[in-house]
């Protein structure tokens, strides 16, 4: 029975469901109880049972069943607390996306409307994107403009915004303007935080960078902390994060500014947000890969910090696992992965092997770099489609979903910011690294086509 599956900790249900390799293994009685019971179970059940049924896609009967499970979960969301919970958001997100897959824009729009009203939702950008896309497909011009405007205002630099605009952005024209945004040293709306800012100033003046990084702990722990400050004050805070070499805080601060103040998207701020380091090393190892794509990947993996280490053991600029590195180069030693020239050389070779494995599909290669190629193989079988954006948003791993779209976003802006600073390579030298022409990055080619699917 459903009650016999342990639920002491989040994820236990997922672990228990792993033993079911096919639907006929005994899932049906539990699914029927889940759907037919008048009472509601914890939202975790609808989330994990729905994901389990998705493993048996593309069977159309399994699609119908998953829609019923997520639909029941949606009906069991009784208040805003449940709606904003991890599982409440996930249930509605899957229901809406699978409705798109089922060519049911009406159901998708209704569900995405609920998601877009949840200010704490991780899925707001996607909710605006898909609602706008449905409006476009249904020739609802006013509704499309409304939701495109909401999408732009919520995430002006984002992958989904660029995609629906077919790889273009009105913000590009801001980049060449010699304008510095207004920086404000004190907050008027939350004056109690001015003492905190004063301490930051003193620590920065004394060169106490480690102490400054510790002072930024609230920013790392909660994105809402930045809501206490006006945009100009946030830009002032970003200067301390920059001098303290605290890239994570710097990126979070600037992201919070750009999301509400697109007029602050100018050369000076964007080059802080998209630093370009180790360019010579990247170019020397990118004969077959667009160098700005490698820069975009490094920014996402390590924020260009050569000494970066993850909790699972990934190392260096491209966050390579030692075992993965040795598959590429048996002679490479673990300690060498902290050297930029070694890490980038091995990382680019590994990423290129993934691009080759997936026949030149950059998005799939990025997903495989994060989640592993075997996982991507499963997703390709599960969600066979030409609509690349729908495929990417259906990826079950939230980390991988966001990883691919963030790198796609990074790639676009690196191309716009630095193309003119990279000198073209003489075509007569076959050994020289190639530099991409100034054009919409190839990562968006498939997305242009998917808009009409």
Outline the structure in words:
The chain is mainly alpha-helical. It has 25 helices and no strands.
What series of H and E elements makes up the topology?
Answer: HHHHHHHHHHHHHHHHHHHHHHHHH
Helix-strand category:
mainly alpha
Distance between the termini: 41 Å
Question: With helices defined by DSSP (H or I, 4 residues minimum), what is the helix count?
Answer: 25
Determine the mean pLDDT.
89
Mass-distribution shape = globular
- Measured by DSSP, the beta-strand proportion falls in under 5%
Flag low-confidence runs.
1-8, 425-441, 446-453
**Strand segment count:** 0
Helix content: 55-70%
Task: Map the helices and strands.
Blueprint: H1 12-17, H2 27-36, H3 43-54, H4 60-75, H5 80-83, H6 86-101, H7 105-116, H8 124-137, H9 141-154, H10 159-164, H11 194-205, H12 209-215, H13 217-221, H14 231-243, H15 247-258, H16 267-273, H17 279-284, H18 291-302, H19 322-328, H20 340-357, H21 362-371, H22 373-382, H23 388-394, H24 398-418, H25 445-450
Helix pairs in contact: 3-4, 3-6, 4-6, 6-7, 7-8, 8-9, 11-12, 14-15, 18-24, 20-21, 21-22, 21-24
Short descriptors:
453 residues, globular, disordered N terminus
In short:
This protein is mainly alpha-helical.
């Amino acid at each position: 029975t459903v009650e016999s599956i342990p639920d002491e900790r989040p994820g236990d249900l997922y672990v228990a469901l792993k033993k079911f390799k096919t639907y006929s293994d005994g899932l049906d009685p539990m699914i029927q109880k889940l759907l037919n019971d008048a009472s509601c179970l914890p939202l975790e059940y609808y989330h994990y049972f729905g994901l389990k049924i998705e493993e048996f896609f593309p069977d159309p009967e399994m699609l119908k069943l998953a829609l019923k499970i997520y639909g029941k979960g949606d009906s069991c969301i009784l208040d805003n607390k449940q709606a904003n919970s991890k599982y409440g958001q996930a249930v509605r997100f899957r229901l809406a996306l699978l409705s798109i897959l089922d060519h049911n824009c009406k159901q998708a729009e209704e569900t995405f409307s609920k998601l877009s009203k949840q200010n704490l939702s991780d899925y707001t950008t996607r909710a605006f994107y898909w609602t706008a896309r449905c409006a476009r497909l249904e020739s609802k011009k006013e509704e499309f403009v409304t939701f495109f405007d909401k999408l732009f205002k919520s995430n002006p630099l984002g992958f989904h915004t660029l995609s629906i605009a077919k790889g273009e952005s009105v913000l590009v024209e801001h980049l060449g303007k010699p304008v510095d945004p207004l920086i404000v040293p004190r907050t008027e709306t939350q004056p109690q935080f001015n003492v905190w800012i004063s301490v930051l100033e003193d620590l920065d003046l004394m060169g106490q960078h480690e102490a400054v990084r510790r002072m930024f702990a609230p920013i790392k722990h909660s994105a809402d902390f930045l809501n206490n400050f006006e945009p100009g004050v946030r830009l002032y805070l970003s200067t301390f994060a920059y001098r303290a070499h605290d890239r994570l805080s710097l990126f979070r601060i600037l992201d919070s500014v750009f999301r509400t103040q697109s007029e602050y998207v100018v050369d000076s701020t964007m080059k802080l947000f998209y630093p370009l380091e180790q360019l010579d090393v990247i170019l020397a190892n990118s004969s077959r890969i667009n160098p700005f794509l490698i820069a975009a990947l490094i920014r996402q993996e390590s924020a260009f910090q050569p000494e970066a280490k993850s909790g699972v053991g990934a190392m260096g600029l491209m966050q390579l696992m030692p075992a993965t590195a040795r598959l590429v180069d048996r002679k490479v030693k673990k300690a060498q992965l902290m050297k930029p020239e070694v890490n980038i050389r091995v990382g680019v070779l590994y990423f290129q092997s993934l691009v080759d494995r997936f026949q030149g599909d950059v998005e799939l290669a990025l997903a495989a770099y994060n989640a592993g190629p075997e996982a991507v193989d499963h997703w390709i079988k599960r969600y066979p489609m030409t609509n690349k954006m729908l495929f990417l948003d259906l990826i079950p791993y939230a980390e991988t979903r966001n990883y691919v779209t963030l790198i796609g976003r990074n790639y676009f802006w690196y191309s716009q910011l630095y193309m003119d600073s990279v000198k073209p390579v003489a075509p007569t030298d076959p050994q020289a690294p190639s530099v991409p022409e100034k054009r919409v990055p190839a990562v968006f080619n498939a997305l242009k086509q998917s808009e009409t699917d």
